[in-house]
Write a structure and sequence with these properties.
Elements: E1 7-13, E2 17-23, E3 29-36, H1 42-57, E4 64-71, H2 73-79, E5 86-91, H3 97-100, E6 125-128, E7 131-132, E8 138-140, H4 147-156, E9 161-165, H5 174-186, E10 191-194, H6 195-198, H7 204-234, E11 241-244, E12 250-252, H8 253-258, H9 266-282, E13 286-292, E14 297-303, E15 306-307, E16 309-310, E17 313-315, E18 327-329, E19 333-334, E20 337-339, E21 345-349, E22 355-361, H10 380-386, H11 404-419, H12 423-448, E23 457-461, H13 465-476, E24 480-483, H14 490-495, E25 501-511, H15 517-538, E26 544-554, E27 561-564, H16 574-590, E28 599-610, E29 625-626, E30 631-637, E31 642-650, E32 658-661, E33 664-667, E34 672-675, E35 679-683, E36 689-693
Parallel strand pairs: 1-4, 4-11, 5-6, 5-9, 9-10, 13-23, 23-24, 29-32, 31-33
Antiparallel strand pairs: 1-2, 2-3, 7-8, 11-12, 13-14, 14-15, 14-20, 16-19, 17-18, 21-22, 24-36, 25-28, 26-27, 26-28, 30-31, 32-35, 33-34, 35-36
């Protein structure tokens, strides 16, 4: 990918910290920073981070040639319900799509079941006449005469945004587009999202939910992105600002403002990209990506150097681990599981005397008790401080003072005294629970995907990932861990390696036997042109790669299997190949094929992305040497369950080939790698820290 000759900067705004990475045109990281997130205006924390890395590198704002940004603002707005007041407009007779949903309960026998909050009550659900058929043919024209009544109803409902989802708009969007124009002419200040732009796929409930989610966060995100751009341009930034998307690519601010739903989970996507890249360099074909920050932990399965992807996920589940209890969103996304387990996760004792950790977080304000910023609740970070696993002097590059006494008081008061434990026992118990929560989430995610964690390498990063990696890996049955360089800002590093890309999934039904080759090629080429227009806006002079696939199933089935399409236009000769590819994949997933059944195609996928040009990774294994500790400290060893002396190493002083044994701490500016007593560590030729559980083979 052609990125110019200047500097590149990436900013990842998380729930607790804002990570910033400055990289030169050759791919070398010049400077990194981790600054507290500023919830009242996240842009202020981002400005501070970029200012710090530029000053550290002795460069100016005008030297930047590429700026990539990822944020949790869209995700948090949906979870915390801080979006716009949304109304819906659906086809006449389909007012109750949200009420009907999938016509099933996600927990059939739970008499106290909490239904997912789908953001729009029936009182703000409106309809309009007109009908488009599944073929795209107009059966009845749009009822323009009812538009004035709709305008009045929207005004009376005090709607700030509108989600339009008309029947079969994926096949023919003209009714939605015309209705949007009519409403915009009479209500110029209202934000309007149409399903044919947001999620042009069959399945009305999912399509409507996705459009609602987009409309819900669009005013907030548009305002935020406009302010973000203005503030950075005022500083002298002259290059385009690109946004990270959930699908693992970058897009323009204009596209992000119109389709902000694609920004949901964009930060974690950067981490998955980094893990996939490290996996390829280290020849680790089966990987578990583990990203633990201040607010959440994210786990992603990576096979053959590609992160697992999906077209659907859920937002704000009523029951954390139960599918169907959240709001479905259908967009291309890197598939991962995210739980409320981070350094800021708050611990408490419930009414039955049980120790609970998360999902509530202290965030950056007030933060853990140890931060000394007014927080009083005990958190995971407080437990790590009390166990001696965090060096107080070097934490957060020394810019954040750590108050160990405050951490001890919080744990003693709210945990130890409540259940009759010592402060050490309470801190250890807190860590045990949060580590088991993360390991259990990883095991569940693997089982749901039909995968085995035991044979995988964990790649751990994030502010707290390296600190908890060995403890989580032990519980998950993983014996091999890689800690990349600059792991504390791993997602931001991943941003800098992401392609400029855009994905489109659109429904166009056909059976494989009756596939109109000419019409299908025209349809796919139209999707390619549409996606390429978005990509070219962010990468004018770059070569691109086009990926296509079809979502196929046996007639009558409810779910599809993604089958790659050949490069170039389809020909009649490809039909037999597609049939064979579908049957091979179906057999791999279900152990058999169904002879004589008609195969149908419901959706088509196109991705246009700039090429990823990678320098060859060095091969071989460096000469091994025994590392000498820089100092020693006392920690609470979770293996021996007692206080023990641990060696402390500065990571900057560990050359490739350096070996050491646990218990030990490997300290660097934004995080610490904890080498448990049952693990050894070695720096590989790439500069990664390789952690091996005792008895594991390299």
């Amino acid at each position: 990918m052609t990125l110019g000759s200047g500097l590149r900067v990436a900013v990842d705004i998380g729930g607790t910290f804002t990570d910033t990475v400055l990289m030169d045109s050759g791919g070398s990281i010049l400077s990194t920073s981790k600054t507290p997130t500023t919830p009242a205006n996240p842009t202020l924390g981002a400005l501070e981070g970029v200012d710090l890395v530029l000053k550290d590198a002795g460069r100016g704002w005008g030297d930047l040639s590429r700026f990539i940004h990822g944020t949790t603002l869209a995700t948090n707005a949906l979870i915390e319900r801080r979006g716009a007041r949304v109304a819906t407009i659906t086809s006449a007779g389909f007012r109750d799509i949200l009420e009907i949903g999938y016509e099933r309960r996600y927990s059939q026998y739970d008499i106290n079941l909490t239904k997912p909050d789908l953001l729009v009550p029936r009182s703000r659900a409106f309809t309009i006449g007109g009908r488009v058929m599944a073929t795209g043919e107009e059966k009845a024209p749009l009822d323009e005469a009812s538009v004035p009544g709709l305008v009045q109803a929207l005004t009376d409902s005090r709607a700030e945004a509108v989600a339009i989802c008309l029947l079969h708009a994926y096949a023919n969007p003209t009714h939605e587009q015309h209705l949007r124009a009519l409403l915009q002419a009479q209500m110029p200040k209202i934000s309007i999202s149409i399903s044919s732009d947001v999620s042009p796929e069959a399945r009305e409930f999912d399509r409507l939910c996705t459009t609602i989610a987009n409309a819900y966060i669009q005013p907030l995100m548009s305002s935020y992105l406009e302010d973000f751009e203005v503030r950075f341009m005022d500083k002298g930034v002259a290059c385009p600002i690109l946004m990270m998307t959930a699908g693992g690519g970058m897009t323009t601010l204009e596209t992000a403002a119109s389709l902000p739903i694609r920004l949901v989970e964009s930060g974690p996507a950067g981490g998955a990209i980094l893990a996939a890249r490290i996996a390829a360099q280290a020849h680790a074909e089966k990987v578990l990506s583990f990203d633990m920050g201040g607010t959440t932990a994210k786990l992603c399965l990576i096979d053959d150097y590609h992160a697992q992807s999906a077209r659907r996920f859920e937002i704000a589940r009523a029951e954390r681990f139960i599918k169907g209890s959240g709001m479905p969103v259908r967009i291309p996304v890197l598939e991962m599981i995210e739980i409320g387990a981070g350094g800021g996760s708050i611990a408490s004792v419930d009414g039955l005397g049980r120790l609970q950790v998360g999902p509530e977080s202290a965030g950056s304000e007030p933060g853990p008790a140890a931060f000394g910023k007014g927080g009083s609740a005990p958190t995971v970070t407080d437990a790590d401080v009390l166990q001696g696993l965090i060096e107080i002097e070097s934490f957060a590059e020394g810019r954040l003072a750590i108050d160990k006494c405050a951490a001890a008081r919080a744990i003693d008061r709210d945990i130890a005294n409540q259940i009759g434990l010592s402060a050490d026992e309470a801190a250890a118990g807190l860590s045990e629970i949060v580590d088991e929560n993360m390991a259990a989430a990883g095991r569940m995610h693997a089982v749901e995907s039909g995968k085995d964690l035991g044979a995988r390498t964990m790649i751990a990063f994030g502010g707290n990932g390296p600190l908890h990696a060995t403890r989580v890996a032990r519980r998950a049955g993983v014996g091999r861990i890689l800690i990349p360089k600059d792991p504390g800002v791993g997602s931001a590093v991943g941003f800098l390696h992401a392609p400029v890309s855009f994905e489109i999934v659109r429904s166009r039904y056909s059976t494989l036997d009756d596939l109109d080759i000419v019409a299908t090629n025209g349809f796919l080429n139209g999707l390619i042109e549409e996606a390429e227009e978005v990509v070219r806006a962010g990468a004018l002079d770059s070569d691109v790669k086009i990926t296509k696939s079809a979502f196929m199933r046996y007639r009558g089935q409810g779910h599809e299997i993604e089958i790659p399409l050949p490069e170039g236009d389809l020909t009649a000769d490809n039909i037999a190949d597609l049939q064979a590819a579908f049957e091979a994949e179906y057999s791999a997933q279900f152990s058999r094929v169904v002879p004589g059944m008609t195969v149908e195609i419901l959706n088509w996928f196109v991705r246009v992305a700039t090429l990823d040009v990678r320098s060859p990774a060095p091969e071989g294994r460096p000469k091994t040497t025994l590392a000498r500790p820089d100092r020693k400290t006392t920690i609470l060893c979770e293996v021996a369950n007692e206080r023990r002396t641990a060696d402390v190493y500065d990571r900057s002083g560990l050359a490739p080939g350096a070996q050491l044994s646990g218990p030990a701490l490997i300290v660097e500016p934004q995080t610490t790698t904890f080498v448990s007593a049952d693990f050894t560590a070695e720096v590989d030729i790439l500069g990664n820290i390789l952690l091996l559980r005792t008895g594991e083979q390299q």
